[in-house]
């Protein structure tokens, strides 16, 4: 597995932003993470992206336990393995769009303006390359973030609401890029509130108050391959059947979502259309 979260929690005082979440993601999977505001999606992305550490549990990326790495080694993982599209953009305000993309190249390898301009062209921003973030719309800034995340060909793209500010045409541009990356074998983890964006992923997990509250497969072949490779359903708390909190049994899930408690009780996962 490229990514293995084992009983991961992030606790702030009384609040469990993530609550005992276990999740494995193989290389090449396209996973969507959905859930209401405050359900822990960004917290999860920050932990996977080595920007934050869990209060409990462990995270393995490419087989390496992240808790064993020094801050310098974590920074290396961040620049060598992961490409991040942040919910809040985090563009450097006094640098132009193309310079913001080149900063990512600078930390990774060699600065190449032509390549950075091509990445902006890919997200439809060739004509805005020399504008400052303050001169760009929210959707344009978001697409600069996508270009910045792609520029170093990361193995794992973590995208937090990457289409949240985009109109239909630009959402399509970003989804097409994700499709191409997926075909090339890139692993994608995409947080979204948009059902269409989520449905493009092979697998969806839903969070509720930091816990796994549902899992859905949109691609049955990928599901079977995942199980055959030893992949297991995501879960919170105990994986054993019948040990989930009983209130999950009555929880309303969107159409198609498997309730993990029910799934455990019937000994498997539900797939769309079953
Ligand atoms: N540094 C922090 N200190 C205290 N509480 C925090 C901190 N960061 C996040 N939280 C809390 O953790 C919970 C999960 O936050 P998170 O940002 O992961 O939610 P989210 O699912 O990404 O929400 P949204 O859809 O609004 O982006 C929220 O209740 C939030 O207030
Ligand atoms: Mg968030």
Automatic annotation (TrEMBL):
InterPro entries: AAA+_ATPase (IPR003593), ABC_transporter-like_ATP-bd (IPR003439), ABC_transporter-like_CS (IPR017871), ABC_transpr_LolD-like (IPR015854), MacB-like_ATP-bd (IPR017911), P-loop_NTPase (IPR027417). Keywords: ATP-binding, Nucleotide-binding, Transport. GO terms for cellular component: membrane protein complex; plasma membrane. Residues 3-234 form the ABC transporter domain. GO terms for molecular function: ATP binding; ATP hydrolysis activity; transmembrane transporter activity. Pfam families: ABC_tran (PF00005). This is ABC transporter ATP-binding protein.
């Amino acid at each position: 597995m490229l990514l293995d979260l084992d009983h991961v929690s992030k606790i702030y005082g009384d609040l469990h932003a993530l609550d005992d979440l276990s999740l494995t993601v193989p290389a090449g999977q396209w996973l969507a993470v959905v859930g209401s505001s405050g359900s822990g999606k960004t917290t999860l992305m920050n932990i996977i992206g080595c920007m934050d550490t869990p209060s409990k549990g462990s995270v393995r990326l490419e087989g390496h336990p992240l808790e064993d790495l020094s801050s310098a080694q974590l920074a290396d993982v961040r620049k060598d393995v992961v490409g991040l599209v942040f919910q809040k953009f985090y563009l450097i305000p006094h640098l132009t769009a193309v310079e913001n993309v080149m900063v990512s190249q600078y930390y990774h390898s060699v600065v190449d303006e032509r390549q950075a301009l091509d990445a902006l062209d890919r997200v439809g921003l060739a004509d805005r390359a020399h504008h400052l973030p303050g001169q760009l719309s929210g959707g344009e800034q978001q697409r600069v973030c996508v270009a910045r995340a792609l520029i170093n060909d990361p193995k794992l793209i973590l995208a937090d609401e990457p289409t949240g500010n985009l109109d239909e045409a630009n959402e399509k541009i970003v989804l097409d890029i994700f499709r191409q990356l997926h075909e090339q074998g890139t692993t994608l983890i995409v947080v979204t509130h948009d059902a269409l964006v989520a449905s493009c992923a092979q697998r969806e997990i839903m969070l509720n108050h930091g816990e796994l509250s549902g899992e859905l497969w949109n691609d049955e072949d990928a599901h079977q391959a995942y199980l055959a490779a030893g992949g297991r359903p995501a879960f919170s708390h105990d994986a054993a059947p019948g040990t989930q909190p009983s209130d999950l049994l009555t929880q309303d899930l969107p159409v198609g979502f498997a309730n993990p408690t029910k799934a455990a009780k019937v000994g498997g996962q539900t797939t769309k259309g079953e």
